[in-house]
Amino acid sequence: MSEDITTPVHLAESRRIPSPDPEREPLKTNVYARMAQAAAQLTPLFPYDHAGAIVPCGNVLIGGEDVAYGHFFHWNTVDEVVVAYGSEGSVLNSGQIMATRNLHGVNSFLRDQTNPEAYAVLVVTQRQAEEGTQSEAITARCAKCKAEIVRHEYDATPHDLPRFDADRYGDPGDAVIQFPSAVGSAEFVEMRNSEEGRTCTECGHVNASFPGELWGWARQVRQTRAVSAAHRALVAAAVAPEGSVRP
Whole-prediction pTM value? Predict the structure, then answer.
């Protein structure tokens, strides 16, 4: 006969999830509605990208006549996980989850980019560094000989760590600060599309320009800069002396 188990279970000793940070309200969003109105690939779905934050970023990749997203390599000191929230004609099936290496290739993930019926809604999630620095790099290779033609390394340390670069990404007190990955990616496109960035020093091949407009990073950077400036202007107007005329 088996013996009764009488050892009490102390629930207080169980592991508990800590309460939410009172300065960061728990939020939810609909990834489909959010990305239907997004300005760029790799758009953060929530306004939290502080040290230790889990940052999901949305992407909508769509095929079409003469569409070519190009290809590059991304390196990140933190891990990334990709989830396909729906796709057609993509190498990532709907619901598929993929953990990437720190250095990984990036393209549209569409089997035939010229197929107007092809699409993929993807969310790339990274866990921000909790201390020290966070670094990223984007590289491009020659289409002919595969030699490296551009390498752009940048500091992506979160805004509440000492190494955060406020000169590049904005004051942490701004309404919206720049997402470092978007800024670094926009800078990569500018470097890649220069005459020097297109010309391979190994074989002399002049590569086609990178289609930055399909990725939208420069637009996201400009919009972030504009909305932060608009917020500062509204605050300034609210505290302006009575009767004063603002330019």
Answer: 0.87
